[in-house]
Amino acid sequence: MPDISQLSINLATVRQQWGLIEALEGVARAGIPAVAPWRDQIAAVGLKAGVRRFRDLGLKCSGLCRGGMFPAASPEGRKAAIEDSLRALEEAVAFDAACLVLVVGGLPDGSRDLADARSQVEDGIAALLEPARAAGMPLAIEPLHPMYAADRACVNTMRQALDICDRLGPGVGVACDVYHVWWDPDLQSQIARAGRDRLHAFHICDWLRDTKDLLLDRGMMGDGVIDIPLIRGWVEGQGFTGYHEVEIFSAQNWWKRDPDEVLATCVERHRTAC
Amino acid sequence: MPDISQLSINLATVRQQWGLIEALEGVARAGIPAVAPWRDQIAAVGLKAGVRRFRDLGLKCSGLCRGGMFPAASPEGRKAAIEDSLRALEEAVAFDAACLVLVVGGLPDGSRDLADARSQVEDGIAALLEPARAAGMPLAIEPLHPMYAADRACVNTMRQALDICDRLGPGVGVACDVYHVWWDPDLQSQIARAGRDRLHAFHICDWLRDTKDLLLDRGMMGDGVIDIPLIRGWVEGQGFTGYHEVEIFSAQNWWKRDPDEVLATCVERHRTAC
């Protein structure tokens, strides 16, 4: 049975209710040891102030969200994306994050060239890799669900992410989010292929059978169809000892509730449904 | 450039406007040579009457929709699904369809056991295979987009469908629908693996970048991000000479338009965007 000492809250889970400082304090108040912050919320209070409160509260960071979004229609756009990811890398270091999560980006506007977008993604990660190695910060490619291939991430399976990792070498691995990969018939074998050294993050939430929205209708663990204990077993069977990071975007449900109640529910469901 | 002689209309594309007979007549009036009918619309007019009008109009059938939906919570439910698929097989034969399309079904209500659902699917197809072989009717497993894994089809990639085909042997192949598989990094290689003998249907529509609904917001060819000519080239490169079947579920757009206009647009976009 999972223990609260293994729990982390991706702050997107309460982002409609709380800014960074309030969220850090709420998580600490709930007895949860770790968070994954987002850059827009960090920017709103300033990196130094955010890191100071984070440290004062004794929290850990299971991952920083996020770098990536590499494909662009112009060379200037591609250069800007890499520069932005380098700043994300600095922030990940400042939070002593377990990894910098990469949401790699989809098709540039007006493009139907998926192969080219994927090639741009690999070039972008390659450009980030030396600085990341120098900083000792693991990069974690997060394969997103195929329904985001056009607009958010054209890396859509663990197999595809690991193919990129194989080509680029040490310093880059994967973030395994059950929401994105639960359906994949190759999931178990690809988690084994990743192995402990390349499993940098494990994200949890649930897939609601009657999903209403492609982006903002993720479910609380236990409310959907994902066999989270099974997938957790595969991940931890490889030796993964990182956090179980709850990441729920839920415009019509959890984002409308008292955030302290949301965190209490995360704690309870983590124990009973994960 | 595709020619209208290669075009088929899946009648779901105009199902909100027309019943079976009106749709058959509309398709013939537009000079389109083939259709894919649905069983609920066939049942509404009766199989004999439907087939008679279909033949009188000189139409061909690119596939019958559909058999499948195999997983169920009880043995009785599983038996009923197979019996229903056997009736679908008879209807496919009556229409001299190129194949019986199988939408295999998702998780039974209350289940999180994806492996078991997939096993039930394979058992269901196996039970259908001898009668299908005897009737000379190819079965076409249609891998559905992973966003339907819970509620519609737990076969979600061409690779997975072909693994099933490999195990079951002759008589079962795949239906390749660009909407479901366009994102797959292994698509080209899996189409080659399928080969001419196992490519039983080719379905077209488009993925809208800003998709609003998981089920009913498919785009007209050319309005989205799928490189249809590229995928058609892969399929026809294997020797596929079947129809290009347009299948668009579009509650807020195409289902609200004059169906003759919808068909005219299908004809034009088939020529210019496929």
How is this structure best described in words?
Two copies of one chain form a homodimer. Chain A is an alpha/beta fold. Helix content of chain A is 44%, strand content 13%. Chain A contains ten helices and nine strands. Chain A has helices at 20-29, 39-45, 47-56, 75-94, 114-135, 158-168, 178-181, 187-198, 228-237, 259-273; strands spanning 7-10, 34-36, 60-61, 64-68, 100-103, 139-141, 172-177, 199-204, 244-246. A nine-stranded parallel sheet of chain A has the order 3-2-1-9-8-7-6-5-4. In chain A, helix 4 (75-94) packs parallel to helix 5 (114-135) and helix 8 (187-198) packs across helix 9 (228-237). Chain A starts with 6 loop residues before the first strand and ends with a helix. The mean pLDDT of chain A is 98.
Broad shape of chain A: globular
Overall radius of gyration of chain A: 17 Å
**Quaternary organisation:** homodimer
Count of helical regions of chain A: 10
* Biggest sheet overview of chain A: 9 strands, parallel
Which percent band covers the strand fraction of chain A?
Answer: 5-15%
Strand order of the largest sheet of chain A: 3-2-1-9-8-7-6-5-4
Order of helices and strands of chain A: EHEHHEEHEHEHEHHEHEH
Terminus-to-terminus distance of chain A: 8 Å
Annotation, overall tally of beta strands of chain A: 9
| Mean residue pLDDT of chain A | 98
